[in-house]
Amino acid sequence: MEQVIEIQGLKKSFNGKEVLTNINLTVKRGENVVILGKSGEGKSVTIKCITGLMHQDEGSLKVFGREVTELNHHELRDLRKRIGFLFQNGALYDSMTVRDNLAFPLQRVSKIKDKKQIEQLSMEVLEAVGLEDAIDKMPSELSGGMRKRMGLARTLIVKPEIMLYDEPTTGLDTITSKEISSLILDMQRKYDTSSVIITHDIPCARITADRVLIMSNGECIAEGTCDELEHAKDPFVRSFFK
Amino acid sequence: MLSKHSFSPALIDIADQTLFFKSFFRNSFKKGFEWNEFLRQAYVTGYRSIGIIALTGFILGFVLTLQSLPTMKQFGAVSFIPGMVSISVIREIGPVIVGLMCAGKISSSMGAELGSMNVTEQIDAMVVSGANPMQYLVVTRILACIVMVPLLTVFADVIALLGGFVSSNLEGSISARLYFYKSTSVLEFSDIIPSLIKTILFGFAIGFVGCYKGFHSNRGTESVGLAANSAVVTASVWIIVIDAIVVQITNVFVYK
After folding, report:
1. What is residue A233's DSSP assignment?
2. What is the DSSP string of B23-89?
3. What pTM was computed for the model?
4. I want to staple B231 with a disulfide (CB 3.0 to 4.6 A). Which of A125, B49, B107, B127 is the partner?
5. B69 occurs within a structural domain
């Protein structure tokens, strides 16, 4: 199966402190990969490198077979159009309504100008995340769970091939967390995306993951399914699933 | 090998500002200008500042007239007050006061708004979606300031003359027609044009500094306040510096 993301020997440091020491990761088309790890292990840095928001110091990072650091400005923008990124707090544009939040990427990224088509696509994606009644609300009027759903809707509206989730269930109650996790899986099936999901939430990992990677000290120390890692020999790896 | 840490923060800041300016300039001429956002920003920066600018302008003209009256009376030159006030306000005090007021109101709000968008990853969200935040957020704001600050200055100048007229009528009696004739008859294009050019530069400085500080704020709620504060201080200093430079150039080339 085609590999959409290939990372080899990724290193990144900030002010002399190494955050990523040796990251190796591959994601196949249609696969959901969950990255688990303690806070500050560089999980978010890894996915920010995938989108070119940050650049690695060393190592190779290929997305759709192309080295991200070698892309020029226009190529990087084209690549980003194929990648969706769900930020921890949704990163909704708070000066715009939900409708305008959804229209923003359609008008500027997909270059759709027809208002009817924008409305139709917005309603379609809002129905998919169960937020059709919120179309005229401001982001400040949405609850934490609704903001995540809305963030997911805005990301999926341009139909990306890869989805990157930065702690999609952090700060949510258990029931809403499960709803969001199920939604991630549903959306992955509906839109046929490949996903990298960063989380601390084991129920989320169990629902969404085809494969789990565990990061420690800036490198991947274990890889497998949830069941395999739960019974791993390394007590540190097992500790995530207790 | 030279790294970013080899240079002083001031040099890095200058380099960042230069790159930011280059990016602003390049994006200003790109296809797909954000007209709706530009008009919204023009409304926010211009229309919403009218009240405070009107009040400032009125008090400026009123106080200037009131303060100069006793001295001018001693020399029997009261009739020169309208002309003196209009030249002082239009050439120098109006643009600088409006510039400083706009630095406080507009630059700080841009710094805080973009800083908060930076902290909540909204700018990153635009970048990773393939949209162009420079074109949408920065170009529109800076151009709105370049257009609106001169208009606000013209408005403040007119209101300041009105303030001067009201003040003149507290002490003596002068008709509106005579007052405005005396105010405007002394003005020449060489008073108005350099002043307008100055306000365009002020508008650019206010928008540029506000956007730059907001865009380059650190990640944390404290940095939003710092970005707003730094935007006001830096924009105010720039206004004083630009004023000094433009006055020197005008003296050399216009009033020689």
Report:
1. S
2. HHHHHHTSSS--HHHHHHHHHHHTGGGHHHHHHHHHHHHHHHHHHHHHHHHHTT-GGGHHHHHHHHI
3. 0.89
4. B107
5. yes
Q: What's the mean per-residue pLDDT of chain A?
A: 90
Question: B129, A94: Cβ pair inside 8 Å?
Answer: no
Span B180-196, mean pLDDT?
91
Q: Is residue B245 in some structural domain?
A: yes
Is B6 among the domain residues? Answer: no
Neighboring chain A residues of B121 at a CB cutoff of 8 Å: 87-89, 91
Selected for mutation to probe chain B from A68, A108, A156, A157 (highest B CB count within 10 Å) is A108
* Residues in chain B whose Cβ is within 8 Å of chain A: 5, 32, 113, 117, 120-122, 124-132, 136
Query: For the residues A4-11, what does the mean pLDDT come to?
Result: 93
Q: What are phi and psi of A158, to 5 degrees?
A: -95, 10
From chain A, the residues in CB contact with B35 under 8 A are none
The whole-number average pLDDT for the span A10-20 is: 89
Interface residue of A93, A148, A164 to substitute, partner B, most B CBs within 10 Å = A93
Q: Where are the domains of chain A?
A: 3-91+161-239
Chain B environment of A15 (Cβ under 8 Å): 5
The partner residue sitting opposite B124, judged by closest CB among A53, A77, A155, is A53
What confidence tens digit (pLDDT) does each residue in B94-104 have?
A: 999 999 999 99
> What's the confidence (pLDDT) of residue A169?
87
B131: nearest CB among A15, A94, A104: A104
- For residue B124, is it within any domain? yes
Q: How confident is the model at residue A192 (pLDDT cuts 50, 70, 90)?
A: confident
Tell me the pLDDT tens digit for each residue of B2-21: 555 567 888 888 999 999 99
Range of the domain at B117: 33-253
Cα–Cα dist A36/A204, whole Å? 11
> Dmax over Cα atoms in chain B, in whole Å?
76
Q: A3-91+161-239 belongs to which CATH class?
A: alpha beta
Alpha carbon distance B236, B103 (integer Å): 6
SS3 B239: helix
Task: Report whether B254 contacts B190 (CB < 8 A).
Answer: yes
- Choose the closest CB to A91 out of B5, B113, B122: B122
Q: Give the mutation candidate from B4, B40, B128 for the A interface (greatest A CB count, under 10 A).
A: B128
What distance in Å separates the CA atoms of residue B35 and residue B159, rounded to the nearest whole number?
A: 30
Tell whether A55 lies on the interface with B, counting CB pairs under 8 A.
no
Task: Tell me which residue of A237, A215, A216 sits closest to A33, measured CA to CA.
Answer: A215
Inspect the interface and report whether the beta carbons of B120 and A78 lie closer than 8 Å. no
Q: Does A108 touch chain B (CB under 8 A)?
A: yes
Task: Specify whether the CB–CB gap between A181 and A149 falls below 8 A.
Answer: no
